[in-house]
Known about the structure:
Elements: H1 2-49, H2 51-54, H3 66-81, H4 95-114, H5 116-119, H6 131-146, E1 149-153, H7 168-177, E2 190-194, E3 197-205, H8 211-214, E4 236-245
Antiparallel strand pairs: 1-4, 2-3, 3-4
Helix pairs in contact: 1-3, 1-4, 1-6, 3-4, 4-6
Amino acid sequence: MIRRRLLPALGVLLISMVGPLSVFAADDAVETGRLLAILLDAGRGAIAANQPLINDATKGDKGFTPDVFAQQLTEKFKGRTGVDLGNLKGGNVPERAQKLLPELVAAAKQTVADNQATINKSGVGYKGFTPAHFGTQAAAGFSAKTGIYLKQTTTDGLLRNPKNKADEFEAAMMKKLSDPGHPRQGDKIMNETVGGDVRVMLPLYYGKGCMGCHGEPKGETDVSGYKKEGAKEGDLGGAVSVKLPAK
């Protein structure tokens, strides 16, 4: 009799335990995705801040080494998240993020290393190494190493690199993110659990420095050879997309 009474109670206990654990696992996946997305964008920001230096035709060696880049990346990331990349275990950072963030830093540094010849080429202005180029290459390197889906993405009207074409989920999220009512302050992500995966989207809005290539007049050829989109500051230009297992 005692055994029969205990079994149902034990079953209820197990169910109550499994539920919260699953929720916690999903929450950790969302936070890991958020941190990865911000880290990639922080790298984009470091490239953007150094764009005048990179495109300076009068200089050869720019001194913009992978280590210099990494220092700036660390500062920008900490400023946006409060997370110190040099002390991930000391902060409230999910265990999975503690493993994946250094992998993305390594991929980002490798991207800057791979482009040193381009960055340091004298006599040439526009080098073709922009935040977008960096983001595509760093994300691809990270995904190849870890198996975690990470990419810059955008929709057809704004697409320049076919590798960044939005999938069905990303296109739907981009539509929501472009709504004028969506909060545009801070790093406001959107996330959903699809099947067994958590999907995270961090919007990328055009800043002042983007207008030279993406602003007015629409249809004019920019320095990279593409047609300007006629965008305005604050318009949605794309997103960083992350997909990783919920557990």
